[in-house]
Amino acid sequence: MDWAKQIEEQYAQALAAQKARLKAEYDQNAAAYQKQLADAAVQYQQVKNEAYVNNALAERTRRENVANMGLSGQGGSSQTLQQRNEAALLSELGKASRQQQDYTDNVNLALAGLAAKYGADTADLEASNASDLSAALLKQSQWQADYDLQTQKMQQEEKWKAFQQAYNLYLKRMITAAQFKAMTGVSLKR
Q: Most buried residue, 37, 116, 129, 151, by most Cβ within 10 Å?
């Protein structure tokens, strides 16, 4: 069994799951900001509509006043009121547009910050995963080396025991030199 490959696969799966969770969180937050951007147009259009309504009411009042006065000598003041109403309308529309732009800029800035945070979090996650993977592979490698050393030591001990047993049998003349060589692979000199 290739333990290193199995460890790498486990860490890759864990990283993929963590990145998916991070991406889902980012997408959810980004969608909320996008909704705020979409809602801003509607919200500030309502402010602009109120300005138009207020201007229309002021202009209506002005016209009624002009009609009530008739064509008297106060026509000049009526024109001044009309210019004031138009200036007030333009001021309110400009103010609403600036507020909408400021709001949009702030939301776009928040979106950019969110994207930067997502990028940094992703990089941090990948670096942390790579570090943990390296530590796990090192630990497994050390374990494997210790295991191999113990196995090798055990095999050497078994060979030594077999050699000792065969040599004792040879010394007791229970086996021949040829049988000793067959058992141990070692040739005896006479």
A: 129
